[in-house]
Design goal:
The structure is a homodimer of 415-residue chains.
Chain A: H1 25-42, H2 49-56, H3 60-72, E1 76-78, E2 94-96, E3 101-108, E4 112-119, E5 124-131, H4 139-159, E6 163-171, E7 174-175, E8 182-185, E9 190-193, H5 195-200, H6 203-206, E10 211-214, H7 215-226, E11 235-240, E12 244-250, E13 253-255, H8 283-286, H9 288-295, H10 303-307, H11 311-335, E14 339-344, H12 345-364, E15 374-377, H13 384-399, H14 401-414
Helix pairs in contact in A: 1-2, 1-3, 2-3, 7-13, 9-11, 11-12, 13-14
The structure holds a DNA duplex (30 and 30 nucleotides).
Chain lengths: 415, 415
DNA sequence: GGGATTTGTTGTATGGATGAACTTATCGAG
DNA sequence: CTCGATAAGTTCATCCATACAACAAATCCC
C-alpha cells in the first residue's frame, strides 16, 4: 500500500437518517465533541480546556478527553502556553488548526469562474479566479473548465499534505437540495442541468463530489461568519447581480425552505401595474442590467459610473431603492427579521440606496415601531459565494465532527 | 397539608438556557423519553412497547423503562391487551392518556371570547365561547371577562381531577414572544398592552400564567395537527378575518422569526399604485370588512351572502383572489413552501378563490415549474386558535416530558 | 522559599443504554 | 389437550461516557 499520507480524504455522503433516532451513549459523545469544537472555533481568542469547561458546563476531565480527539483529528491545535498575568499553572491555548484540513469552494457566475480552499481557521489557502462572460453559455464546457481549476487546487492541497474535507459549488440559480440537479440559472441560460453528473466525469472530482448550493445563500454564510462577533446573527441578505438573489439567515444558519429554494427575492412582485411576465418583479427594477438600461448606460458600465450618472441614473437608483424596499418589506413582514445586508453590487451602492430602502421599510413593515430596522452593506470578501461554499463544508464538520473522525480513521486503518 | 390531589399543577416557566449546553446522561434519558412519547402520541393507532422499540431503534428493555415513567406521569395509558391474530404473547397497546392531563387554550377575537381544554389525546374536554363585538374595546374589562371564563374551566378540570399542564392565549395581533407584552392588535384597537399583568390580577390565573400567541400561528398549529397524517407537513396558513393573519409551518412546527412576528401576510404590499398608508396591502383588498365594502354589502353580511352576491361582489372576490395570490407568491418565493391552506373566512370561500389564487401563483412563483403548488381549505375545527393554543402547550410537554415529570414530582413530594 | 491559585490528569463512582437470557401468553398442529 | 413455535415484556450483567474528587504541575506573590 502506498505511503501517501496526503491523499485527499472525503466525508462520506450524507446518510439518510431514520425518521426517529434513538440517542445512545455515543450520541452524547458526538454532541459534546461538537460542542467543544464549536466553542474552540468560535471563541474570539484562543481558549484553554478549563475555559471550555466553564463555558459548556462539562468537567475539565471530559473536555480534556474530547480535546485530545480533536487534536488527533487535526481540527484543533494547541498553542504554546504563555505564562499569564494570573497566578496558577498557565493554560494551554486551543485554536482552530491551520493548514491541516480544508474545504474547497467553487463558483460559476455570470462574469467569472472561481475556486478557493479554506482551512478550519477560515484562512484562504488557495484562490483561483478566471474572468469571462458566461451569459447564455453551454454548461458542459464551462463545468469542464471549472473542473480543471478544482483539480489544480486539489493537487496543490495534496502536495501540501492538507486533508480535503469536501467541496461545494455555488451557482446563481435554483438548486434542488433534495434531488440534486440544477433547475434554473436564468442568467447563465442553464435549465435542468445535472451538474454532478457532468462533474463526475472528471476522475479527480468524482472523489470530491461537491454539494451544490445557491450562490446567494452561500454568500450569506460567508457574510454571517464575517459578522459572527458583531451583534445579532439573523438577517436578510440581498445579493444584487444581473439577477437578484437572497437568503435568510437565522441565528447564524441559512433558512433553506422545503426544496432549498427560499430567498428568491428577485421575483417578488412590486407593482401589479406593469406587465406580469418579466416586469413587475424586483429584478426588473433593480437588477444590474435593468438598472443600467434605465440609467441610459451601457450594461458593462461600472457602479462608479452609475453613481455619478445624470438625472436618468439618479431616477433609476431612486426607483431601485424603492423597489428593493418594497420587496424587503414583504420579507420582513413574512419572516420577521430586522436586519438587512446589501451584497453584490448593492454593497457598493449601499450608501446611495439606504435612505430610500429604509423609508419604504419604515412605512410598510408592521413591526417597525417596535424594533429598529437596519440596512447595511455586506462586509464579507470579494467572492463571498465561493468562500461561503467552503465554509458550509467546514460548518458541517463542526456540526458533526464524529463523521469526519470516522472518515479519517478509515483512511488511517487502510494505510 | 391539604389532601387536594386535584390541585392545578403548572409547568415551571421556561428557563432561559445557557448559550452552550453540555449533554449529560440525563439528557440522553430526556431525549429518549421524548422520543418514545412522540412515537406513542403520533402513531395512527395504539402501539406496543415492541413496536416503539422497532420504530425508534431502542431496545425493548429501554422502551419499557421509559414507558413506565410516562404511564406513571399519566401522559400515556395502557389499553387492555387484545389477543391478536398472530402467534405470540399479545401486545399491550399504548395510547395517549385521556382526561388526565390537559392544557387550556383561550382566545380573544373580534367577535368572541373563548376558552377550551384539551387532553393529551387532543380531545376537547371543555369549551366555552361567548360572542360579542370587541372592536376598539378596552383591554382590561375584556380580559377580566376572559379570566372569569378561564377560572370556570380551571375549576371544572380541578373537579374532575385533571392536571393542568399550562395555558395559552391567542390574540389577533403582534405578540412579542421575547419580552412578553402585546404590541398591536389593530382590530381590537389594542396597543402595547401588558396582557399578562392584567391577567395576573386574578389569583386563579396567576397560577396558570398563559403563554401569549398570535392567533393565526396558533390556528396553524391546530391545522398542522389535523393534517398530521395527510401528506407533507410544511405549508403556509392564511387566516382571513377582519384582519389577515398568517403562519408558516415547516415540518410540523411554526416558524416564528426573531420576535415571533412572522407571517404578517396581511401587510404585504400588493400594488404601489394605491395610497400607501392603509391601501396597497393585502388586507385592504381581501380583509373581511374590505371585501364586504367592495361588494356593496353590510359588514355584518354572511359569507354565503357574499358568495351569491351580484356583479360587485363577484368583482370583489376576483380582486381578493388576485391579491391573495400575489401576496402568497411573495411568501412562496421567499420561504419556499408549496402548499397553501386557507383558513378563517377563506376556508368557506376556498372553492371560489382557489382558481384566481392558483393562477397568480403559477404565474409568479419562480419554482412553480418544478413543484406542484396546492391551495386547500383549512380542515381544523371551528375555533382553531383556541385549540392550537392548547396544543402548543401539549406539544411543549411532548418536546420535553422531563420538565413535566419534574413539575409533577414536586407536587407529589409536597403532598 | 512557601502558600495560594489555577490548569490539566488520574482514578473511582454513577446513570443510562445494550444484549442475552428468561418469563409470560398466545397460536396452531397433531 | 398437549407441545412446539412465536412474540411481548422483564431481569440482569456489561459497557460507556460523564461526574466527582483527589492529585500533580506550573505559575504568582509575599
Amino acid at each position: 500500500m502506498a505511503e501517501d499520507a496526503s491523499a485527499a480524504k472525503v466525508l462520506p455522503r450524507e446518510r439518510l437518517r431514520a425518521p426517529a433516532r434513538a440517542a445512545r451513549q455515543q450520541s452524547l459523545r458526538a454532541h459534546n465533541l461538537a460542542l467543544v469544537l464549536r466553542e474552540v472555533l468560535t471563541a474570539p481568542s484562543p481558549v484553554s480546556r478549563a475555559d471550555v469547561a466553564a463555558l459548556t458546563g462539562l468537567t475539565r476531565a471530559t473536555v480534556s478527553a474530547l480535546v485530545e480527539q480533536l487534536v488527533a483529528a487535526r481540527l484543533v491545535r494547541e498553542l504554546t502556553p504563555v505564562a499569564g498575568q494570573r497566578a496558577g499553572r498557565p493554560a494551554v491555548p486551543l485554536a482552530a488548526a491551520r493548514g491541516t484540513v480544508a474545504a474547497i469552494g467553487a463558483e460559476v457566475n455570470v462574469d467569472y469562474l472561481g475556486v478557493c480552499a479554506l482551512d478550519m481557521a477560515g484562512e484562504t489557502l488557495v484562490e483561483h479566479v478566471v474572468r469571462d462572460d458566461f451569459r447564455q453559455s453551454d454548461p458542459v464546457p464551462v463545468l469542464d473548465r471549472l473542473a480543471d481549476l478544482v483539480a489544480d487546487v486539489v493537487a496543490e492541497l495534496d502536495g501540501r499534505g492538507v486533508a480535503i474535507a469536501g467541496s461545494a459549488l455555488a451557482i446563481p440559480g435554483l438548486v434542488d437540495s433534495v434531488t440534486g440537479p440544477l433547475r434554473l440559472a436564468p442568467n447563465l441560460g442553464w435549465r435542468d442541468v445535472d451538474v454532478l453528473a457532468v462533474i463526475a466525469r472528471h476522475p479527480v472530482l468524482a472523489a470530491v463530489p461537491p454539494r451544490l448550493g445557491n450562490d446567494a445563500k452561500l454568500a450569506a454564510i460567508a457574510e454571517s461568519r464575517a459578522r459572527r462577533r458583531t451583534g445579532p446573527r439573523s438577517f436578510v441578505y440581498v445579493s444584487g447581480e444581473v439577477g437578484i438573489g437572497g437568503a435568510i439567515v437565522l441565528d447564524g444558519s441559512i433558512f433553506r425552505g422545503v426544496h432549498g429554494w427560499s430567498g428568491e427575492i428577485g421575483h417578488v412582485a412590486i407593482g401589479t401595474d406593469g406587465p406580469r411576465d418579466m416586469g413587475g418583479q424586483l429584478e426588473s427594477y433593480a437588477g444590474q442590467d435593468a438598472l443600467m438600461d434605465a440609467a441610459g448606460l451601457s450594461r458593462s458600465a461600472s457602479i462608479a459610473e452609475l453613481l455619478r450618472g445624470g438625472e436618468a441614473a439618479q431616477r433609476a437608483l431612486d426607483r431601485a431603492a424603492d423597489a428593493i424596499g418594497i420587496a424587503l418589506s414583504a420579507v420582513l413582514n413574512i419572516v420577521d427579521v430586522d436586519r438587512v445586508v446589501l451584497g453584490g453590487i448593492y454593497a457598493d451602492l449601499a450608501a446611495r440606496l439606504r435612505p430610500g430602502v429604509e423609508a419604504q421599510l419604515r412605512d410598510r413593515v408592521i413591526a417597525a415601531p417596535w424594533t429598529e430596522i437596519t440596512v447595511e452593506a455586506a462586509v464579507a470578501g470579494r467572492y463571498p459565494a465561493m468562500a461561503g461554499g467552503a465554509l458550509s463544508v467546514l460548518d458541517a464538520i463542526a456540526e458533526d465532527p464524529v463523521e469526519w473522525l470516522g472518515a479519517e480513521d478509515e483512511v488511517l486503518v487502510a494505510q
